[in-house]
Write a structure and sequence with these properties.
The complex is a heterodimer of chains A (281) and B (468). In chain A, 27% of the residues lie in helices and 30% in strands. Chain A has a 7-stranded mixed β-sheet, sandwiched between helices. In chain A, a hairpin with a 7-residue loop joins strand 3 and strand 4. Chain A contains 8 helices and 16 strands. Chain A is globular. With 281 residues, chain A is α/β, with parallel strands linked by helices. The model of chain A has no long low-confidence stretch (mean pLDDT 93). The two termini of chain A are 24 Å apart. By secondary structure, chain B is an alpha/beta fold. Chain B is 32% helix and 15% strand. Chain B contains 17 helices and 16 strands. In chain B, strand 1, helix 8 and strand 2 form a beta-alpha-beta unit. The longest helix of chain B has 21 residues. Chain B is globular, with a radius of gyration of 23 Å. Chains A and B meet through helix 1, strand 7, helix 7 and helix 8 of A and strand 5 and helix 12 of B.
Chain lengths: 281, 468
């Protein structure tokens, strides 16, 4: 079973960075792909984006925020512990080429998977501008890492505690108005990606988005992750997760993401009752 | 039959005890309970022990049927399983899920006058008896040959191929994409028809024989077939037809619409029926419609009923006669109170606030059979009507999973994306690469996949031994 080599609390109290020993996966994985994990016998399978890939070391990195039962249980795993099942790399890698000037937009967690994408884009000779948004400055992750490898980082916060006050699209629109942009890539909550696409559309700038639909197997078998792209049904797990954002039917995606809200709550509440003291560190 | 027997031929099969329909419709325990030793011996005594057993020819893996039945008749149950295992690696599975009525039992001499011998039930009895007595039927193994074979996929074809090759002394490694081995036997066929412990028992035998099983290994992503061929002497692809088809009608992406694969995987592999004890959720519909008339549709509708549906309905565009499902499954479904809307086709799914609310259907007529003998259904104009539902399960078939074909160089495929392979040997366009089961034929049965795995194993053995 794959071993956790390193765990860092990167945002108090609920966002963790994990470095996992996965030599085979690390040799194959490319930016934009994901893995599926299952942490114990009774656990769900959940997809997680790759936050970094290090083939020399034979490791991959994951960033997990405790939002529900499975992710909170994951947060109880520490360095030295093993992940019961780790499957990947899954999905199509981000298409990297020399576009010219590229804007990467990361909302909340989106910043993490954008990190290896930014590095590849930079290595391919692109000018990389990163726009990172969060509700408040203390919720930002990966700012330092992004600054280390991009040409410009713009921060937006809903409360104005850092950078531009407002949402990512405010900064995005300003950039699009000021300079010619060749490509936009967005990773984050579906609603954010939807508005990013609405912002870029009038400028005619190609925009890819990474869709986080509900999945089980991640290999094209269940069809639970299906999304509607340009009126056609596609599976996010094998055809995506990245698609042309201007073709995505956002309403279907956002609706389908809500399928198990009640069950997720029920399951998490039941777990919290039994593990009131398990999650502290 | 040469021996003169004074006793009269019994025309009917010894009945198999079932769980009462009223009870079983709310649990996931097995429906058919299996023969007792007395029942098995009684049924075995019906066999005429034909000199030219047509039943054997009707079996895709040619199980020596009269011989194992004779052992049961004499009470030597241990020998019965030994005989079966010379031909079939998964008797506990086949005894339960094989369509015997179209295979061995179809050709039984007794069937001309009355009911055929219950070969499937006897096979199951022998396998279950062995399991209960911890007799795993490990065959004699040949000296290691030093040859390495990779098997891609751990469904019925892959498991059978692995069993045969391991027995012949080859070093076998199975790669499975999911976290548990067994393929469709684990994720597809429900517990009430095939208990998971039965499959696990058979897989333990493979491990005992030295077969390595690597789970969470998605071939085409983690390792390609080309890379496998650098490390192994031969490879068998048995990745199945697991790619769900949708109807393409309006409303198919509403919440509450599942592919049968997703619905069954949530319940079988992920044990959603034990939610919240197990974490994977499922929508337990009150009124569930399942589109399709095959075994997967029957499994889905009966699963929905067990999850608590008040009304579970099969919607099928042809009549009962054309249904591809086994008669036994249709019979069980009816006993459990499943509704059948036959000659009915869905035209759209109607939603409310993002959730399924109803399904709109149209009645169909079957026109005169064409030259191929098949009657195609045609819509009856103006016959549209709605069925109120909160869950819809689409069970209209599957296609080939594209991960292996897309990632393998020079692997010939047919127009539908299935791998082109020789029927008798499983040989593909790539040297040393063999394929069989649903990824070659399209969705079929467990036993046909096993037959393909077995033929490929023989061809791989020949390939490996003649190569030197």
């Amino acid at each position: 079973m794959p071993k956790i080599l390193e765990k860092i609390l990167i945002r108090h109290p609920d966002v963790f960075y994990y470095k996992v020993d996965a030599p085979l996966i690390s040799k194959k994985a490319k930016p934009g792909q994901f893995v599926i994990i299952r942490i114990h016998e009774k656990s769900e399978r959940i997809p997680l984006s790759l936050a970094d890939i290090n083939p020399e070391e034979g490791t991959i990195s994951l960033i997990v925020m405790s939002v529900g039962k499975t992710t909170t249980e994951m947060s109880t795993l520490n360095a030295g512990d093993e992940i019961r099942d780790l499957c990947g790399p899954l999905g199509q890698p981000t298409h990297i080429e020399k576009y010219g000037r590229v804007i990467l937009v990361g909302g909340g967690f989106g910043a993490a998977p954008l990190y290896p994408i930014a590095r590849e884009l930079k290595a391919t000779g692109n000018e990389v501008i990163v726009i990172m948004g969060a509700r408040s400055s203390d919720l930002l992750i990966y700012e330092k890492e992004m600054r280390s490898l991009s040409d410009k980082v713009l921060i937006t916060t809903d409360d104005g505690s850092k950078g531009v006050k407002g949402v990512v699209t405010v900064a995005l629109k300003r950039e699009l108005e000021q300079n010619a942009v060749d490509m936009v890539m967005a990773v984050g909550p579906a609603v954010m990606m939807k508005f990013v696409c609405e912002t870029t559309k009038p400028f005619g700038v190609k925009t890819t988005v990474s869709l986080n639909s509900i999945m089980i197997d991640g290999t094209g078998m269940c069809g639970g992750c299906r999304v509607s792209i340009g009126g056609k049904t596609r599976f996010a797990c094998i055809d995506g997760p990245e698609f042309n954002g201007h073709e995505v039917d956002w309403d279907i995606l956002i609706n389908r993401q809500k399928t198990y809200l009640n069950e997720e709550k029920e399951s998490f509440e039941a777990w919290k009752k039994c593990h009131a003291f398990a999650v502290c560190e | 039959m040469t021996e003169k027997s004074a006793k009269k031929i019994i025309l009917n099969k010894t009945p198999i005890p079932d769980q009462e329909p009223a009870k079983r419709r709310s649990n996931f325990l097995e429906v058919a309970l299996g023969y007792t030793p007395e029942m098995a011996m009684k049924e075995a005594a019906r066999c005429l022990q034909c000199k030219k057993p047509l039943c054997v020819a009707g079996c895709p893996v040619n199980v020596p049927i009269p011989q194992f039945i004779n052992s049961i008749k004499t009470g030597d149950f241990k020998n019965a399983i030994t005989i079966i295992k010379t031909a079939s690696f998964l008797p506990a599975v086949c005894g339960r899920v094989c369509p015997q009525e179209d295979q061995c039992e179809k050709y039984c001499t007794l069937g001309k006058k009355g009911e055929p011998v219950a070969i499937g039930r006897l096979e199951r009895f022998a396998a279950d008896y062995a399991m209960q007595t911890s007799e795993n039927g490990r065959p004699e193994m040949i000296e290691p040959t030093g040859k390495k074979v990779a098997i891609v996929g751990s469904g019925p074809s892959g498991l059978t191929c692995a069993f045969d090759l391991a027995r012949l002394g080859h070093s076998v490694t199975i790669f499975e994409a999911l976290h548990e081995a067994g393929g469709v036997l684990i994720y597809g066929i429900p517990e009430f028809r095939l208990p998971k412990k039965v499959v696990a028992h058979e897989i333990e035998l493979l491990k005992d024989m030295g077969v390595k099983i690597i789970t969470n290994a998605v071939i085409g992503k983690l390792i390609t077939i080309d890379e496998i061929m650098e490390q192994f002497d031969a490879c068998f692809i048995g990745t199945g037809a697991g790619f769900p088809k949708f109807m393409g009608v309006e409303g198919e992406n509403l919440n509450g619409v599942y592919s049968a694969n997703e619905f069954l995987t949530r319940v079988n592999l992920m044990r959603a029926y034990e939610f919240p004890e197990y974490d994977t959720p499922i929508k337990k519909g009150q009124r569930v419609a399942v589109i399709g008339g095959g075994n997967v549709a029957m499994d889905s509708v009966r699963t929905a009923l067990r999850l608590g549906a008040k009304e579970a309905t099969i919607i099928y565009r042809r009549s009962e006669k054309e249904m591809p499902a086994r008669r036994e499954e249709i019979h069980h479904a009816k006993e459990e109170g499943i509704r059948f809307e036959l000659l009915t086709n869905p035209v759209k799914i109607i939603g409310e606030n993002g959730w399924v609310k109803a399904i709109e259907c149209v009645r169909m007529d079957l026109c005169e059979p064409d030259e191929s003998g098949r009657s195609s259904p045609v819509c009856k104009a103006g016959s549209e009507f709605q069925i109120p539902v909160d869950v819809v399960i689409v069970a209209i078939g599957t296609g080939p999973n594209p991960l292996v074909p897309r990632s393998t160089l020079k692997l010939a495929l047919n127009a539908c994306g299935y791998i082109t392979a020789d029927e008798g040997t499983g040989r593909t366009s790539r040297e040393g690469v063999f394929a069989g089961g649903d990824i070659v034929t399209g969705a079929a049965t467990v036993i046909l996949a096993m037959g393909a795995g077995r033929k490929a194993a023989a061809a791989i053995h020949e390939y490996l031994t003649c190569k030197n």
